[in-house]
Amino acid sequence: MPKKWVTEEQDNWFYIRQLAYNQARLVGRIGIYLDDVVKEFNKTWAVSGWEEVIGDSAEAIAKRAAMDLIYQVWKKQIRQKFNNECHKAGPAAGVTNSVGNLAALTKKKKKVFNLKPEEILEAMEELHEKISEAEEKQVPADYLEAIDQALALLECLLQEVAAQTGWWFSVIAGGSLPTDNGNIHTPFNALHSDQLPPAPQEGSLPYATN
Questions:
Q1: Most buried residue, 73, 85, 103, 139, by most Cβ within 10 Å?
Q2: Do the beta carbons of residue 140 and residue 178 sit within 8 Å?
Q3: Helix axes of 30-44 and 58-89: crossing angle, nearest 10 degrees
């Protein structure tokens, strides 16, 4: 049932774009696709087309509808990735071995994906304030821990890029460790790819993406 501020024709328009989104994702042009959706919607459903129903707020509602599509598609994709990661973690993380852990994980997942955009923004602002207040209290060990955590996040991002584009990445990061007399340590060294790059043809130079 279409929302009251979306006609049946507009609801069908959104449905077609949601199907097309998967194709855009396969060829790695999600950002461009979403920009096109907003532009096409605002062009197709001009302010004059909404005036009979919602009056002066037509343009704002039209933009809200377009952005709602983007948010819902984004949420759907993130939820699927979250489920896949939990499934892969499985026994190793103790998720499937403990009813309590599984219930807690499910509850947390539902809470995250039921948040409204406004609540997400508020949570981000609150986190930013906490980080800003804690910066003055940080010591070198805190920065090293943050770097290691950032690398874990980078791993997730590169896995997603590799899955969508077929690119491959070799990542090596490290630095001096104050607690080990300044010796260099390398906490992260991994290859991210859905598939390895093709072997170079005879007479061609090997290549790498770093």
A1: 73
A2: yes
A3: 150
